[in-house]
Design goal:
This protein is an alpha+beta fold. The protein has seven helices and eight strands, in the order βαβαβαβββαβαβαα. Helix 1 runs parallel beside helix 2 and helix 6 runs antiparallel to helix 7. The longest helix is centred in the last third of the chain and has 18 residues. GO terms for molecular function: catalytic activity.
């Protein structure tokens, strides 16, 4: 008796039967539109799937990549945008920003062999190798399957409400400013004592360290 394909495949870091990094790379093995929605997207994480992205875009000009990120300096590396823009010869890549505390992690491909990954893992080397992450991979025979359609609709709605990422958005001072705005908005939701004891030191440290994220 042949075991049936599991309805949901769990993805781990180094302790799962299937690693998140491998599943993310496999998104680019099929054709269609790939959505990458990641709360944190570092350059080291991008480099781990860069060759897969290149192959995906070169294989067919009909293939598209849609990326939605938080533009703050502690969330997104400007080098990713610069690299994608430099190699996007056929306008297949669209980059969007959601500045209000983007924390979602959704990775999806439509097309003839659709797949969806949702869980805790961002596209970072830390998520690939260190953190205890848990994500779920769903593979179905149609993007209209009720298990996948809600995720596609959510991704398209998020993209429709997002703003195209511009070159000025990835300037260092602009990204650091976005980080400070995000943290100050979060601080308003906390009791004053917590702000003084926890958030203010973090803000001061962020000013010093945020620029370094550009190179991570």
């Amino acid at each position: 008796m042949i075991d049936a394909e599991p309805a949901v495949r769990l993805l781990g870091t180094i302790d799962g039967t299937r690693r998140f990094e491998d599943a993310l790379a496999d998104l680019f093995a099929g054709d269609g539109t790939v959505y990458l929605i990641s709360g944190y997207f570092t350059y080291q994480g991008y480099c781990r799937v860069r060759d897969d992205i290149d192959s995906f875009l070169e294989r067919s000009q009909e293939n598209e990549l849609i990326v939605v990120v938080g533009p703050a300096s502690d969330q997104f590396s400007a080098r990713i945008a610069e690299d994608l823009w430099a190699h996007d010869e056929h306008d297949q890549v669209s980059l969007y920003k959601r500045a209000r505390g983007l924390h979602a992690k959704l990775y999806l491909r439509d097309g003839p062999d659709p797949v969806c990954i949702i869980g805790s893992a961002n596209i970072t080397q830390v998520a690939f190798e260190y953190n205890v992450e848990l994500s779920a991979e769903l593979v179905r025979d149609s993007i209209d399957h009720p298990d996948l359609r809600p995720f596609l609709e959510w991704a398209t709605q998020l993209t429709a409400n997002a703003t195209p990422l511009r070159r000025r958005d990835i300037l260092g001072p602009v990204q650091i400013g976005c980080s400070l705005i995000n943290w100050s908005n979060k601080a308003r939701l906390l009791p004053p004592r917590n702000v003084v004891l926890r958030v203010v030191p973090v803000l001061l440290l962020l000013v010093v360290l945020a620029g370094l994220f550009r190179f991570v």
